[in-house]
Design a protein that fits this description.
elongated; single chain; mainly alpha
Length: 146
């Protein structure tokens, strides 16, 4: 009986350590995302500084829209990494993002970069794949006047 208890305690201990590591990783994800969100917020409030980070030919207004979409996508990416968006929920959120013109424009401009950045990170690759699939469902050009 003592051996069985020792094995049980060891299993519980290993499970606790594994859970603590997952929690630590999640806390790090949250902290990094918060820093990113804060930085994006500061750039949105100061478009003259944001332009320095923009793509060639992007004016202040376009840059603010791009940063705003990035901010939204960053928050959604965190929700996915924390396990709050899986399967149909992830597809729904990706679809809702690209339903908006600002989301489509963001993905058209920055999607390839995000996919490159996600390489080797299965969770990030899954997130990008959902967005890429959602983007394919919409025409490449928006109607005139939209």
């Amino acid at each position: 009986m003592k051996t069985w208890h020792a094995v049980l305690l060891a299993v519980v201990g290993v499970a606790h350590i594994a859970q603590r590591q997952v929690h630590q990783r999640q806390q790090a994800e949250i902290a990094v995302t918060q820093l990113h969100q804060d930085w994006l917020g500061q750039l949105i409030e100061r478009p003259h500084l944001a332009v320095q980070w923009g793509l060639d030919g992007m004016n202040e207004e376009e840059m603010v829209h791009t940063l705003s979409a990035n901010q939204q996508l960053s928050a959604l990416g965190l929700r996915d990494r924390l396990g709050l968006l899986r399967g149909p929920r992830l597809d729904f959120v990706a679809d809702a993002f690209v339903q908006k013109q600002i989301g489509r424009r963001y993905w058209d401009r920055c999607g390839a970069y995000r996919e490159e950045e996600a390489a080797g990170d299965r969770a990030a690759e899954r997130f990008c794949r959902a967005l890429k699939n959602a983007r394919r469902a919409y025409p490449k050009t928006d109607p005139v006047g939209v």
